[in-house]
Structure formats: structure tokens, C-alpha cells
């Protein structure tokens, strides 16, 4: 599966040209015309890397990056600045803000691809070295899913319901766990509410994934809301 990139740039010509080149290089690219639009998209999606312009109206790249770094979900997310501002002071400001790479315009698109590939490879190596095979969920990813679930719940009344496409039999305990997941609670909170262990909650959540054919808490809650499974 190709890496998902978010490209934020208010110049349509540059945005489309960079998007096309990155897609030709094998990446999946979501575009946003400004930081507000990019941030809104990220409330329901988590890219593998963000490429952002600096000089943008309303919210500039530095403010956007600060917003990302202050959110637990995106603290470790690789970010590349593309900008016409190429002075040393500007680059230093970018690095102090937490940017991973800074590429002044005009730039060679092959250099951008090399930077993206390098950052993604480093992130993958870091994930592997910290024990990706452990069953403990990544806290940033879990926080991201909880935020997405809460966003879903605000739209709950607007979600049209239909019967599930296949028969789903849930045990009373699985139903209880599903209801609490659909409230946006984390495993520790669910375990406390049900007076059981976090490990048991993880097992129930895994069973719910299997029974509903979903792969994440966000997908599970969306499925439950669409098919009237959450009480």
C-alpha cells in the first residue's frame, strides 16, 4: 500500500504539479489549498507525511506546524516545508518549529521525492526498532482514532441507518464494549467501567473487528452507527 501524503499549498499550479509528480512516483496524495482545509481533513485521516507551503493566507506554515506539534496524534509526523522563502533565518525558524526538511522553491522534484522517501524510511525504521510487533497500540494513533470517533459522534443524527450486510451475533460483553468504544472511550477507561483488565478489553475489541470486518476503532464505530449496532 502506497504512503499517504498530505500536500498543502495555496498556489493551484504548484499544488497540481507537485501532486502529479508525487503520484507518478508511487505515492497517494491528498491536497489542501490552505492549512485550515488540511487540518480539517486530518481530523478524520492520518497521513504518513505532510508537505506544506509556508507563505499562506490565514494560517501560515509555521502556525500549521505548531498546531501539528501540539497535538499528540501528529507530534512524530514527518513534515516538509516547500517555500519561496530560502533565507538562512527562515530555514532556522522552520527547524526550530519542528520541521523535518526545508526545500526552497524552485526545487527539483526528484529531490523532493528523495526527501520524502528518506523521511518515510527513517520513520519505518524507528517504528520497527521500538517494537512494532508488540500488542500495545501506538498511543498517538489511538488518540487519533478517539478524535475521529468523537467527530463521528457529532454527526450521529445525520448518519442514515441500514441493516447490516451480514448477520452479526454479539455476546452481552461484546455489546457492552462496543457501546463504550462508540462513546469514544479508550481501553483503560472501558476496563475501569466494566471492572475488567485492559488486556481483556483489547481481546473484545479484536473480536469486534473480526465480526464486523473492520480494521480500526474509527471504522468499527462508523459501521456500528450506520447499522444500528451501538446502543
From TrEMBL:
Domain HTH luxR-type, chain residue ranges per copy? 163-228
Q: Where is the Response regulatory domain?
A: 4-120
4-aspartylphosphate: residues bearing it:
53
Q: Which InterPro entries match?
A: CheY-like_superfamily, Sig_transdc_resp-reg_receiver, Tscrpt_reg_LuxR_C, WalR-like, WH-like_DNA-bd_sf
At the top level of its lineage, which domain of life is listed? Bacteria
GO cellular component labels? cytosol; protein-DNA complex
GO biological process, alphabetically ordered: regulation of DNA-templated transcription
The protein's matches in Pfam families, at most eight in alphabetical order, are given as:
GerE, Response_reg
Annotated GO molecular function terms are: phosphorelay response regulator activity; transcription cis-regulatory region binding
Q: Which UniProt keywords apply?
A: DNA-binding, Phosphoprotein, Transcription, Transcription regulation
PANTHER family hit by this protein? REGULATOR OF RPOS (PTHR48111), TRANSCRIPTIONAL REGULATORY PROTEIN TCTD (PTHR48111:SF67)
- Protein's recorded name: Response regulator transcription factor
Amino acid at each position: 500500500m502506497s504512503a499517504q501524503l498530505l500536500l498543502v499549498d495555496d498556489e493551484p499550479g504548484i499544488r497540481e504539479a507537485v501532486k502529479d509528480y508525487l503520484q507518478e512516483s508511487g505515492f497517494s496524495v491528498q491536497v489542501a489549498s490552505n492549512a485550515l482545509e488540511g487540518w480539517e481533513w486530518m481530523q478524520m485521516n492520518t497521513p504518513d507525511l505532510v508537505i506544506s507551503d509556508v507563505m499562506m493566507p490565514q494560517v501560515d506554515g509555521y502556525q500549521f506546524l505548531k498546531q501539528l506539534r501540539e497535538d499528540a496524534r501528529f507530534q512524530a509526523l514527518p513534515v516538509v516545508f516547500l517555500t519561496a522563502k530560502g533565507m538562512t533565518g527562515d530555514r532556522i525558524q522552520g527547524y526550530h518549529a519542528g520541521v523535518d526538511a526545508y526545500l526552497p522553491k524552485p526545487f527539483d522534484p526528484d529531490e523532493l521525492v528523495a526527501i520524502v522517501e528518506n523521511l518515510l524510511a527513517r520513520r519505518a525504521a524507528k517504528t520497527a526498532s521500538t517494537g512494532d510487533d508488540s500488542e500495545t497500540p501506538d498511543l498517538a494513533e489511538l488518540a487519533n482514532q478517539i478524535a475521529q470517533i468523537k467527530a463521528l459522534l457529532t454527526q450521529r443524527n445525520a448518519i442514515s441507518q441500514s441493516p447490516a450486510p451480514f448477520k452479526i451475533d454479539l455476546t452481552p460483553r461484546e455489546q457492552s464494549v462496543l457501546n463504550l468504544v462508540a462513546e469514544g472511550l479508550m481501553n483503560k477507561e472501558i476496563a475501569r467501567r466494566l471492572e475488567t483488565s485492559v488486556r481483556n478489553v483489547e481481546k473484545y475489541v479484536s473480536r469486534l473487528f473480526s465480526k464486523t470486518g473492520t480494521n480500526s476503532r474509527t471504522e468499527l464505530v462508523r459501521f456500528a452507527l450506520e447499522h444500528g449496532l451501538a446502543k
